[in-house]
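User: Could you check the structure of this?
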Amino acid sequence: MIRVEEEKAQEGSVINVDMNGSVVVPGDIFDSIKGRDITITFDMGDGIIWSVDGKSITRDASPDRAGDIDFSVKTGVNSVPADIVNNVTGENYSIQISLSYEGEFGFTAVLSIGLGKENAGYTASLYYYNESTGELEFICADEVSTDGTVSLAFTHASDYVIVLDDDGQEEESGSAEPAQPENTNQAAGNGTARGNGGIPGSPDTGRTGGIWWIIVVLLLAVAMGAGVFAAVKKKGKEENSRQ
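Assistant: Sure, the predicted structure tokens are below.
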């Protein structure tokens, strides 16, 4: 079961969700925090965490739940042709990632991913692979922190390349080049190693239902304030007066 670590969903709060092997988030979760100063983080396992700020959500509500988001991430893939990658990376180390969801998210999702403590201080640049033009387009960059993680912003799902640049670190640290992170052939969300195209081996991957989302929805309801309770109470009084 997914564990909700934050019990108060008031303005300015953060709700931490342990996905516990699941990869799909129901669309109504995002609709519930749209426009609000509430952040939800989704711990996918394997050192990968997604973070969504309610203020960044622009998508319309999805009453039919068609807006569910698959947050699984495949790493160590080779979706982008090597010659295109080399045109951008040169001799710098790079890693390709592929997001399972297709198209626009309807919000900004920040991905925290581990690239190895040995690469702390290097600059990680995110490039989007535009298949129509056959080119890599720069999206954003972040410095690898002391714990080996970077935070990169995504607005839509596709194939991407993360390039590690020494950015002057070679002279300062004496490191010859960025080191290859460990476990780059795994996909976040179920902790299962993937190979031969990244096919998961867990039959539970992708499940969306469960009591855990009911808990999340209840917590988000708290964020709406006493106005919701007052409206329900008023409705009850009106019904009683008509009896």
